[in-house]
Write a structure and sequence with these properties.
With 117 residues, the chain is mainly α. It has a single domain, classed as Helix Hairpins. The chain has helices at 3-28, 32-43, 56-99. α1 packs across α2 (32-43). It is elongated, with a radius of gyration of 24 Å.
Length: 117
């Protein structure tokens, strides 16, 4: 398992959440919970609309922030999914090797013959 890619992916998500939370807290005056919530809703494209930026500066930042964070989140989720899939595939291969579940096939039988000649 490539822990460095996994670590970087999780770090990207946490940095994005922290950056957005601090920015929206400072520019919009929202409390940290609302700022964190808005950041999460923006980066996951949910956007319920219950919180809306008021200043033009924050609106522009939100558009750019959305474009960057959506791509970063998709990348991070892809890496996490790949690592989980690799780990599961490795576990399955080691299980089959350990338990000898591979059968030797008769070369005269085909996929459709079901052992009949």
């Amino acid at each position: 398992m490539s822990y460095s890619r996994l670590f970087i992916s999780v770090a990207i998500i946490l940095i994005i959440l922290g950056t957005g939370t601090i920015y929206f807290h400072n520019t919009e005056g929202w409390n940290l919970t609302d700022s964190f919530y808005f950041t999460g809703m923006t980066m996951t494209t949910v956007g319920y609309g219950d919180l809306v930026p008021k200043s033009d500066q924050t609106k522009i930042f939100t558009v750019i922030f959305s474009l960057v964070t959506i791509g970063a989140c998709l990348y991070a989720l892809t890496v996490i999914g790949e690592e989980l899939f690799k780990k599961r595939a490795e576990n399955m291969l080691s299980f089959f090797k350990k338990n000898g579940k591979t059968k030797k096939r008769n070369p005269q039988t085909t996929l459709f013959s079901h052992g009949k000649k």
